[in-house]
Amino acid sequence: MTESEFNERAEAALRMLELAVDAADIGIDCTRSGSVLTLELDNATKIIVNTQVPTRQIWVAARSGGYHFGYDGKVWRDTRDGTELFAALSRLVSAQAGVAVVLGPK
Questions:
Q1: Which of 51, 52, 89, 93 has the least C-beta neighbours within 10 A?
Q2: Are 14 and 35 in contact (CB under 8 A)?
Q3: pTM (predicted TM-score)
Q4: What is the mean pLDDT of residues 84-105?
Q5: Domain made up of 3-97: CATH architecture
Q6: How far is residue 72 CA from its own chain's centroid?
Q7: CA end-to-end span of the chain
Q8: What is the pLDDT of residues 30-75, one digit of tens each?
Q9: How far apart, in Å, are the Cα atoms of 68 and each of 37, 81, 103?
């Protein structure tokens, strides 16, 4: 994938994530600075989602650790276990917030 293709796909994923967080309406503050998306939960913890152009990945930093997602031609998948990005974020946000959260692309 070229750099411009990566940037286009990664930007679309970040926009979809912003929309999914807004649609969930669960009190998560979502702020964006360039290619870095910060999700601040009600308990004052954060999950950071950002793009990594050199590796063509989306990285997620949560309380439980760091995760790297590569594009498989259809969706972004965790490079370790193959979990889809929105499924992984749903699990991470739920664990960190202490409430069930389902985030899906819009």
A1: 52
A2: yes
A3: 0.92
A4: 90
A5: 2-Layer Sandwich (3.30)
A6: 16
A7: 24
A8: 999 999 999 999 899 999 999 999 999 999 999 999 999 999 999 9
A9: 15, 10, 18
